[in-house]
Automatic annotation (TrEMBL):
Keyword presence, Iron: no
Protein name as it appears in the record: Arginine--tRNA ligase
Domain DALR anticodon binding span(s) in chain numbering: 464-576
Gene3D superfamilies according to UniProt: Arginyl tRNA synthetase N-terminal domain, HUPs, Isoleucyl-tRNA Synthetase, Domain 1
Arginyl tRNA synthetase N-terminal domain sequence ranges: 5-90
Organism whose genome encodes this protein: Candidatus Ryanbacteria bacterium RIFCSPHIGHO2_01_FULL_48_27
Lineage per the UniProt record: Bacteria, Candidatus Ryaniibacteriota
């Protein structure tokens, strides 16, 4: 049992014994910001004061006395503070035992069984072939990959899902741009180029087609016809170009996934779920869930609080994104049955998703209740918002390369061999970008700042990676000096670091419950700060009789840092 749960159980038991006539209310057990106020604190006395008609301080005194008599060996003492807070101080043996648990469980330390026996699918990234893989997709990938790892660490049988829009008007616009390039003789050269260049060409073809669609009525009609032909695969020439461009996009996306450390279990495409989505909508018409309107089929969202009407089949008889989303929900469940499905997207589609889930709830309530939308904020550079339509986008690859180049300057004088340094630079660049995204609460917008994100001294990915590398360096020196770990004779100088180590499990659990990785990121920064402060003021390898325990403590810190970074999808280097 986590110490948090142990203390909560003690408080609850004390309240029930003292005041059996009152139904217990929810109360918090939290970490005080200042270690001098104990390891845990509860507001239970203040929460119950009104229901009991008593002064909170009076309740706190009675409750503290009851807990003191039942606390056992895990708690050293209990004190009352302020208007009625109760502070708990853990025993020295419990703190030292926390280090032992880290060393015992290793890369499984911090794991829990909150989702044991559950099947969870996490859908994220979802880039559209024929369009740029931009920093918005990068943000979705970072959050989705971290959530996947957190639910796995919580015991779930987890599947990573990627849903991609390989049909639709955006594809037709890109294919029209490819036709123009082919007629101009440009496509021959593109076919000889690398995967990144091909992806860049497709982005430009889409931007050109999107612009002409808005500006030229004749082109608009051509693209609309191409859209129908792609959907029906009725034109051999159009189909061949479409298949070629689609393959280029998917091959390019895989290079990005590999770089980011993501491996999907299943890929779903709009082309595969469109027909089913249309069938589901047509079935819903018969059940009065959908209705015909001006040649299209719509869902009247206004009938429900906070929703709006959306088109599910357009006037050309083609299923829209909304209808395809219905088909996806059913297809996902058929291919990998789930108890819970997390869908990670930008919050720009939050209102859209509410309507889709409501419509799905009318058709398949058994599935709708299993789906949880996780909307996140928008990632921007200081230059402002992007637009795929105009071609004014920052690709994920460009951002990663710019970050990598900036880091190269910082590490120019490193003594790490060149071959190893190349992989290290990419590891740190990806870590810098991922951490800058994950350190914020999921719903917040983020402006990527190079100086802050690449700092080796502040709240950044490189700082955490450097702290892990520092711990590993200390362990190598200890090994060379023949110092072996021991858990005997801990001193008071290590207590704060021990306290923070014990909080990792709670950070993991909080991240899982809130579906927000930033709890882990915040925890890791606090741990890194405390370890670096300890390193700056205390000797470790050459600390005499205390060295074996301090080395064991350093090993525990390295384990927790590595476990936490892994849950964020960030690799932990052993040298920097």
């Amino acid at each position: 049992m986590l110490m948090h749960d142990y203390i909560q159980k003690l408080v609850r038991g004390g309240l029930q014994e003292l005041y059996p006539e009152v139904s217990l209310l929810d109360f918090s057990v939290e970490y005080p910001e200042d270690f001098s106020h104990g390891d845990f604190a509860t507001n239970a006395a203040m929460v119950h004061a009104r229901a009991l008609g008593k002064n909170p301080r009076e309740i706190a005194e009675a409750l503290a006395q009851k807990i003191q008599s039942a606390k056992g060996e895990k708690i050293e003492r209990v004190e009352i503070a302020g208007p009625g807070f109760i502070n708990f101080y853990l025993s020295r043996s419990v703190l030292a035992n926390g280090v032992a648990e880290v060393l015992e469980h290793g890369d499984r330390y911090g794991a829990n069984d909150a989702l044991k026996g559950k099947r969870v699918v996490v859908e994220y990234t979802d880039p559209n072939p024929f369009k740029a893989f931009h920093i918005g997709h990068l943000m979705t990938n970072c959050i989705g990959e971290s959530l996947s790892r957190i639910v796995e660490f919580s015991g779930a049988d987890t599947r990573r899902i990627n849903y991609q829009g390989d049909v639709g008007l955006h594809v037709a616009k890109a294919v029209w741009g490819m036709l123009v390039a082919r007629d101009a003789g440009e496509l021959v050269q593109v076919r000889t180029q690398g995967v990144s260049e091909k992806a860049m060409f497709l982005g430009k073809a889409y931007a050109y087609g999107a612009g002409m669609y808005e500006d030229d009525e004749a082109v608009k009609k051509e693209i609309q016809e191409i859209n129908k032909k792609i959907f029906a695969r009725s034109d051999a020439d159009i189909t061949a170009l479409y298949d070629e461009g689609r393959a280029w996009s998917l091959e390019y996306f895989e290079t990005i996934y590999k770089r980011l450390g993501t491996k999907f279990d299943h890929y779903f495409f709009e082309s595969e779920v469109a027909s089913l989505g249309k069938q589901l909508v047509e079935t819903g018409i018969e059940k009065n869930i959908f209705e015909r309107s001006d040649g299209a089929v719509v869902f009247r969202g206004e009938k429900y609080p906070g929703l709006h009407t959306r088109v599910f089949i357009n006037s050309d008889g083609l299923p829209t994104y909304e209808a395809k989303e219905l088909g996806l929900a059913v297809t996902k469940y058929e291919k990998c049955p789930y108890d819970m499905a997390l869908v990670v997207t930008a919050n720009e589609v939050a209102d859209y998703f509410k309507v889709v889930l409501k419509a799905l709830g009318e058709l398949r309530p058994d599935l709708a209740e299993k789906i949880i939308h996780v909307p996140h904020g928008v990632l921007r550079l200081k230059s402002g918002k992007m637009s795929s339509r105009t071609g004014d986008v920052v690709t994920a690859e460009k951002l990663l390369e710019d970050v990598r180049a900036a880091l190269g300057g910082k590490m120019a004088e490193s003594d790490i061999p060149e071959a190893e340094r190349e992989d290290l630079l990419d590891m740190i660049a990806v870590g810098a970008v991922k951490y800058s995204i994950i350190r914020q609460s999921v719903g917040k917008d983020i402006i990527f700042d190079f100086e802050t994100s690449l700092s080796f001294e502040g709240d950044s990915g490189p700082y955490l990676q450097y702290t892990h590398a520092r711990a590993c360096s200390i362990l190598r020196k200890a090994g060379e000096a023949g110092i072996k770990d021991t858990l005997e004779a801990p001193s008071d100088t290590t207590k704060n670091l021990e306290r923070i180590l014990m909080r990792f499990s709670d950070a993991v659990r909080a991240a899982g419950e809130a579906r927000d990785p930033h709890y882990i990121a915040t925890y890791l920064y606090v741990l890194a700060q405390e370890f670096n402060a300890f390193y700056a003021h205390e000797r470790i390898v050459d600390s005499g009789d205390e060295a074996p325990y301090r080395v064991a403590l350093t090993r525990a810190v390295s384990i927790v840092l590595k476990n936490g970074l892994d849950l964020l999808g960030i690799r932990a280097p052993e040298r920097m």
